Amino acid sequence: MVNRRGVIAAVLGFVYPGLGHVYLRRWVRAISWFLLALVTAALVVPESAYQAFQTDGLAGLMEASENLGPEVTLSLLVIRVLNVVDAYLVAVRDTASAVAERIPTPGSDGAAAGADAAGEPAECPECGKELDSDLDFCPWCTTRFDAPDDADSA
After folding, report:
1. Are 154 and 146 in contact (CB under 8 A)?
2. What transmembrane ranges does the database entry give (predicted)?
3. How far apart are CA 75 and CA 144, in angstroms?
4. Helix 47-56 and helix 58-65, axial crossing angle in degrees, nearest 10
5. CA 99 to CA 93: how far, in whole Å?
6. How many CA atoms lie within 13 A of 83 on its CB side?
7. 24, 91 in Cβ contact below 8 A?
8. CB pairs under 8 A, 24+ apart, for 70-79?
9. Max Cα separation, the chain?
10. First and final CA of the chain: distance in angstroms?
11. Cα 109 to chain center, whole Å?
């Protein structure tokens, strides 16, 4: 199954490094990727590209970018690819931890689903069997809990 939040974060991260992390509300990571992209560009893009942008605007920058060496292109691409992978993995990890919080596991602090305050599974007052906390009735004897008054007549 594809993690939809991860794909959206990855696409946004490819648009500009850090944007996918903003979508995931990982502010420090977003700022870090944004700054890393800026610093990398400042270090590898030649001064002539900046001057072309100042004199001719975007058209001058596009002309100057045609003369950039492969090391400039590769370094900027590596930052984008690493950012895309990081944004996707952060989204997957967030989703997995959110799912893990909703699904209790035996032996964890909180015991099994339907546990009472003492940590023991809740029992049906009619048949005494273990209850599932997600259900509003006993799956063994079909006794309803917190049922409306008109359900008693049925």
Report:
1. no
2. 6-24, 31-53
3. 64
4. 150
5. 10
6. 31
7. yes
8. 71/44, 72/44, 72/45, 72/46, 75/40, 75/44, 76/37, 76/40, 76/41, 76/44, 79/17, 79/33, 79/36, 79/37, 79/40
9. 85
10. 42
11. 25
Indicate whether this model's pTM tops 0.70: no
Per-residue pLDDT of the chain (154 residues), as tens digits, is 688 899 999 999 999 999 999 999 999 999 999 999 999 999 998 888 888 888 888 888 888 888 888 889 899 999 999 999 999 999 999 888 877 776 655 555 544 444 445 555 677 888 888 777 777 778 778 888 764 455 454 4
Distance CA 60, CA 107 (A): 65
Query: How deeply is 52 buried, as exposed, middle or buried, from its count of CB atoms within 10 A (0-12, 13-18, 19+)?
Result: buried
- Distance, in Å, from the CA atom of 16 to the CA atom of 87, rounded to the nearest integer, reads 12
* Neighbour tally for 125: CB within 10 Å: 11
- The rounded distance, in Å, linking the Cα atoms of 64 and 149 is 78
Count of residues making up the chain: 154
